[in-house]
Amino acid sequence: MTVSAATPDYERSPALTAAAAASSVLLDITQAGDKLLAVGERGLIIYSDDGRSWTQAQVPLSETLTAVSFASAEQGWAVGHGGTILHSSDGGKSWQLQFDGDQANQQWLSYTKARQAALDTQIENLEQTSSGEDSDLLSDLRIEAEDAGFAVEDAELAVTTGPADPFLDIWFGDVNNGIAVGAYGMIYRTDNGGKDWKLAAAGIKNSYRYHYYSLTADTAGRLFLSGEAGLMYRSLDGGKQWQLLGPFYDGSLFGVLSHGDEILSYGLRGNVFRSSDGGDSWQTLNEDIPFSLYGGSTLSNGNIVLVGSAGGIAISEDGGDTFTTQDHPSRSSFSAVTGDASNAIYVVGMSGVVSIIKREAP
């Protein structure tokens, strides 16, 4: 006898209680007021008042979560696999689903269809009015239209097969304005605290749909977005329009952070870059960091901490001019780092919260 049953969607089930939550895979960590809060695999979110004892939050799904951002002590957002965006209004104790990959796929499909239709109209109009001098332009437009058709087919397939692409970072400037970015050029904006998330791909040039990895803002309010293949963008209008900067590197830039009036970006093979003029030019910094860099933070005392593969930790006390490096005994890759008001350093990665390094403020 054959028994037929629908396959349970475990990822859409509430996150299970983890026996050793603080030792599970964690991918990002931040501060929510006086609390520390970390997110990771299978919908795991944990929070702590002291960095030693951790409590697991109530999360409505089991998708792996990749990044978290708090605009205030109470209002926070987390993103992850399957196009997931979660929201908390109680300091991270409980979470609600705001947006998912099904909505993302539908918006992307509408966008690709509109772009294809616009190109077809442009080609038709040019064919009717062309005097023969526009042959090169017509040829380019036809190639674009063909690519747009493939994009529509891919988008239709994504709607059929379901959510797959992950968000990789989220940034909020205040409790209303936020941006979520991720794999294959995913970029969505909100101006009402996440009640509505809208595709923002029209404002950024990324025809190859490279991944976006990290977002930050400088003291002047300029936004910076780093990504695959050395992508670095700047926005002067809150993320509506983006300008491609550089290029100054051809490898992945996994992170970008602000340090006073300066911006640092980092990535593969220990590469670190700094801009002191709002992103117009970039300087290569320390070339002796022997590990790839996946996460970074500026502490309250001004120190910069970068973390990465094989337990690597790099600390700069002079704005990035020099770094001292160390390897954590676990040799476990780290993905994110933050600090608290006492300048303690909290690192998360494949083995959870694996290191607390006390450093005195100068």
From TrEMBL:
Domain called Photosynthesis system II assembly factor Ycf48/Hcf136-like: residue spans: 51-96, 166-286
UniProt entry keywords in alphabetical sequence: Photosynthesis, Photosystem II
Presence of keyword Signal: no
Entry-linked CDD domains: Sialidase_non-viral (cd15482)
Gene3D superfamilies: YVTN repeat-like/Quinoprotein amine dehydrogenase
Keyword Membrane: no
Family matches, as PANTHER family: PHOTOSYSTEM II STABILITY/ASSEMBLY FACTOR HCF136, CHLOROPLASTIC, PHOTOSYSTEM II STABILITY_ASSEMBLY FACTOR HCF136, CHLOROPLASTIC
UniProt name for this protein: WD40/YVTN/BNR-like repeat-containing protein
Biological source species: Zhongshania arctica
Taxonomic lineage from the root: Bacteria, Pseudomonadati, Pseudomonadota, Gammaproteobacteria, Cellvibrionales
